[in-house]
Structures are given as C-alpha cells and as structure tokens.
Amino acid sequence: MTVRAKLKPQVNNRREHILEIAAGFFVRKGFNGTSIRDIANAAGMLPGSLYYHFPSKEALLLAVFEEGVTRISEAVDTALADSRGDAWDRLQTACQAHLSALLEGSDFAHVIVRVIPQDAPGAAEELVALRNGYEEKFTALVEALPMLSDTDPSLLRLMLIGALNHVPLWYREGGETPSCLARLFIANLRFAQDCSETHKEET
Amino acid sequence: MTVRAKLKPQVNNRREHILEIAAGFFVRKGFNGTSIRDIANAAGMLPGSLYYHFPSKEALLLAVFEEGVTRISEAVDTALADSRGDAWDRLQTACQAHLSALLEGSDFAHVIVRVIPQDAPGAAEELVALRNGYEEKFTALVEALPMLSDTDPSLLRLMLIGALNHVPLWYREGGETPSCLARLFIANLRFAQDCSETHKEET
DNA sequence: CTCATAACCAAACAATCGTTTGCTTTTTAA
DNA sequence: TTAAAAAGCAAACGATTGTTTGGTTATGAG
C-alpha cells in the first residue's frame, strides 16, 4: 500500500502525459510534421484513443499552447515577484525567466515559438490571442524603462522578443546559460538609452 | 509576331514560375502544410508533372531555398557595394537590405526564415549550410564594429538576426519601412557600444 | 519531313492522414 | 455488489499524401 500509493500517481494524469508527448513532437517536428499516430504511439495507445481526450488535432495543439503560455507566464511572474532592481533589472529578470522556460525544463513553452498560428488555421485566432496575452507582460516592462523620447517602446519590445525567441535555433547546452544570455542581451540595449542622456548633455 | 514575341518570354521560365509559386505556398502555409498538388494546381499543371522539373518535394524546397539565399545575398552585397559610412553604417545598410528582401518583393527570401531545416529532414543539412553561408556576411560586418572588449560579437550578431527575422511575424504594410526599421534597430544597439567608452572614461 | 528531346497529361500506386464507430476493459462511486 | 462513467481497443472510414509509370503533345534542329 505504501509503494502502491506512490506508483499510482492519481486520476487523470494521462491527459497531461499526452500533452507532454505532443509538445515534444510539435517542438521537434512541427505541427504539420507530427501525426496523431506519432503522439498516440509514443503515449502507448492507439490513434483513436486520443479522441477521447481531445476532439481534434488542432484542439490538442491549443491545449499544449495554453499549457505553454501558462507555464512561461508563471515563470516570468514568479521571477518578477522577488525582483528588487530598477526597470532594466526587472526586464532582464523577465528575459531570463523567458529563456529558461524556452530552453530548459519541458517543451511546452518552446511550442509557442516553434509552432506559428498559420500552421493550424482552425486554431490560429486563439493561438494569436494566447501569444499576445503573454507578450503583453513585456509591453508593461518596456514602457517602464527610462527611455529617449524618440525611442519607440513597442519596437524595442518586438526587437527583444525576436532576439529571445530566436535563441532556441542556435542554443547549445554547455554554452552561455539563459541567465547569462539575458544579461548580455539587456546590456546590449541598456546603455543605448542610458548614454543618450550623456550624449544630450554633451551637446 | 510583334505580340507573339512578347507573350512568348523564352525557353524554360516555367521552372522559375513553379519556384515562385512554391515559395508563396511555403511562406504562407509552411513546408509540411503545402502539398505538391497545391503547387501544381496553382502552376496550372498536374501533380505528376512537377516531377519532370524536380525529383522530390524536398528538392523543390532546396531549389527555392537556394534562390532565396541567392537573392537576399545579392541584395545585401549590392547595398553594401555603394555604402560609404563607418562599420555601423554598413551594418545598418545590410540590415535594411535584409529586411527589404524579407518584407518586399518576392517570397524567396522569406522562405529561408519561415521554413526551418527540421521541417525537411532529408534536406536539413543543405538548408543549414545555405543559411549559415548567408549569415556569415553578418559575422564580418559585426566583427568590424568598434566594440567593447567584453562584448561577444557572435552574440550580438545572433541577437540582431533574431530581431530581423522576427519582423515578418508582426510587420504590417503602411507602418515603418524596412529602411526605418533598420535604422531604429541599429540605433538601439549602437550607442550601447559607443557610450560604454564614455562610461569608462567617467570611472 | 523527321526525329529527338522537352514538357506535360492521365491515371494510378501504396502509404499515411485525421477522424469515426462500436465494443470492451478498467475505474469509480453508491 | 452493482451500475455508471472513464478510458481505451480494434478496425475501419474517406480523403489526401508524395510519387511513379506510360503515353501524349509541343518544339526546334538537321
């Protein structure tokens, strides 16, 4: 009974198991490169059995996407919760959490940058909404920065997100850590704003 | 005969026609979201007829990819050929040409950022090689920059390329032009290096 | 005209796709 | 103990996939 209670995790973690496996396939083979049979086989069941848990392949993607957004959001929120620095430090903290979620741990967060809404037309609208909802966190963080009046904050945000979401394409384990990358990324942007003040004073 | 000579472009632009159509589909639906029949129908022929021009779907992608790399490379080279400024100006010029190729004109260049090698395992190696070959241009441009000793040039390059290749995901016609975007992107990075000198002198 | 080659059609191939259906097994709750 | 609900199996559905094959039409050179 003691062992039994441990080995028997509890009800309905089977659905989560499917989600995890699906996330892995979506990340490595893309949405249209993954078949229902790929996922079912890896999950140890038959293709049709998946339809007890999800009404369609696109609904499955949506569920994975939602889990991804939830996890990366929570990671960023948690990291920001005990962040004591200025606005730049907070942005860097968010970037580090974002990168950590993308590169380490599960595949859920990775899916939301690997699969683009166009890949699943029937779910595209909701995927975009989910993504935008998450990225709004960065809107607030960037707008809190002390910036030049002629710097477009939304452009800075898009530039940063582009750089961050590109990392999984070249990242190799053993290189710079997510924490280190976040610091370097922010450093490359930070002084651009700080120093413009200096430049202004000089002229 | 006068009209005839115009309507009859010349031998074998049919293959290029197919490439253009394929590029459009690959950009809008992805590689695995596009079928041979999609392309054949749009090209006004039957699916099997494509195999006279290309031995496989992946070979077709490879041909599109090559054309994309060729075009964006030439765009950057041409732009750099009559660039008179310093290293930062030259990098900005390259970025502008890169963005122009991605956002305006044909779909060829867009394919090389929309389709990732993983999508076509059989051609992955060659796709990666093509992409790396092009991106080396930026290696040289970034290494020519006057930078801090503690700034990693290859990281700056990856950051910039990430930001650039992300633009097609949010770009809307009527907003900032590619030229404007390139200027703003570089501005966000430039002073970070320039001003660190100032900071050093201050301390 | 002749003939070879280029370009394409027409039709099918086996394989795989997402999905459905009806039935069986397992688990849960009363 | 028993009935209901959850979970999955077995098997197939029609549609679509990339690709092949053999024959047909167009074109251009000798």
Descriptive report:
Two copies of one chain form a homodimer. Chain A is mainly α and 203 residues long. Chain A has a single domain (58-202), classed as Tetracycline Repressor, domain 2 (Orthogonal Bundle), CATH 1.10.357.10. The first copy, chain A, has ten helices and no strands. Chain A has helices at residues 2-7, 14-29, 36-43, 50-53, 57-81, 87-103, 108-114, 124-143, 153-166, 178-202. The A-B interface holds A 28-30, 32-33, 116, 118-119, 151-152, 155-156, 158-167, 169-170, 176, 181, 184-185, 187-196, 198-199 and B 28-30, 32-33, 116, 118-119, 151-152, 155-156, 158-167, 169-170, 176, 181, 184-185, 187-196, 198-199. The first copy, chain A, binds a DNA duplex (30 and 30 nucleotides) through helix 4.
Fold blueprint:
Two copies of one chain form a homodimer.
Chain A lengths: L1 H6 L6 H16 L6 H8 L6 H4 L3 H25 L5 H17 L4 H7 L9 H20 L9 H14 L11 H25 L1
Helix pairs in contact in A: 2-3, 2-5, 2-7, 5-6, 5-7, 5-8, 6-10, 8-9
Chain A binds a DNA duplex (30 and 30 nucleotides) through α4.
